[in-house]
Hints:
With 130 residues, chain A is α+β, with helices and mostly antiparallel strands. Helices cover 21% and strands 35% of the residues of chain A.
Amino acid sequence: MNYPADLKYSENDEWIRIEGNTGTIGITDFAQDQLSDVVFVEIIVEPDEDLNQGDACATVESVKAAADVYLPVGGTITELNEDLLDTPELVNSDPYGEAWMVKIELSDPGVADALLSADAYQKHCEERLV
Amino acid sequence: MSNDLKRTELYQWHVDNGGRMVPFAGWEMPVQYPTGPVKEHEITRQAAGLFDIDHMGQISVRGPEAEQFVNWIVTYDVSKMNLYDAHYALFCYADGGVIDDLFVYRLPDPENADRHYFFLAINAANRSKDVAWVTAHAKEFDVSVKDISDETYMIAFQGPNAPEIMDRLTTVDLTQMARFSAVQDLILDDVPILLGRTGYTGEDGFELFFPAEHAVEVWKAILEEGKEEGVAPIGLAARDSLRFEPCMPLYGHELSPTISPVEARLTFAVSFDKDFIGRDALLKQKLEKPGRVLVGFELVERGLAREEYPVLHHGEEIGVVTTGMYSPTTSGYLGMALVPREFSKIGTDIEIQIRNKPVKAKIVKRPFYVPAYRR
């Protein structure tokens, strides 16, 4: 399982890459592995929408389960990854790269500091596998 | 995981080979292997897949009145079956509701050369219910009913390459073996096996029954024999999508005590020209035409329908999804649903309520995938 050190994580298995004031959001390697083959992605937010931390931004459906994706930070949506609509399997093959879901302009960049580090998130995942 | 769950002889093999074990019908079974359900589905359609389905049950019915008795408790007329035939059938209540669906085999009785006996392959979740039902009705007939599930192992070997691979393992010639027939043979020198040219995937292939103590040996031998042809173990998730595409019903979804075989469009397995429990109710339903029927649908707008989602027509709830999923073979987002008959015509516009949002869909032809043996 892969837990890139340069990302921040939520307990709900989202990752965020912070660059300046912009955050790129997706679901983690652990999440895609638990879901197994992803066959459908729906992004349920629009560019320019102002949203709060914890708001749902996407739904990911695998062969057997559906999972909501929540924003780990609040802010204004700037971009959606529409490639996922036709190629949902990217969530399995490249969860931290091509399968990013939304980009957001953070309303409060300081909020990201409270998210989990890679080490803390890895521990959180391993606890759930026991 | 709960200690109440039963494990098959292959449990440790599944764990050692990355099987993801989940509770299913009281058993701990592999839902998938590291290959993943979509690829496992494709392997079965294109090469062949091996399925541990030992959670399923088996009942033997022997005795001078075995045929009359089985004919009384199942919907299909087993008097039409020749020796070594296998046929799909149902157990119904008197009101036509379904107790279970099953495969019936007519076989020579090893204890009496002049007689045939019946071998019934039933669903795991319904085993105790089925055994109780069959046993209760057996009292009025000269038969002996035995639950032989524990000593009988069951695996399925399905896919276009399965017949050729299996033929290399058997002494009997399988190349001329008809669909829905069975043979008895010895494989691996001394393992007595019953092979039915049956299955629940829409592919050619077999269901195998043999003494449980040989489970690991038989399983490994088939995988080894089929290695070059790409044979792989297949989990429950792919088993479900494989039966879904040819629109084969799954008990608890398309069949239940409140869904009849007429509504589920399974009258090919119901012989109205003989008497059986549930006949009158089913005949009445057939003649009057059922109020609701099982249909296939395809989502027209983006979405994935799942079981129990409401079916709408112009915003008004008219039915319910029984199974919905992504179909790997057609790349479609498809489903089966129970709807009033007036909405069952192919091309009818409906909506599926997905997380409070109506998503456009239309009724399409069933099956979504025509079984290989019917082409």
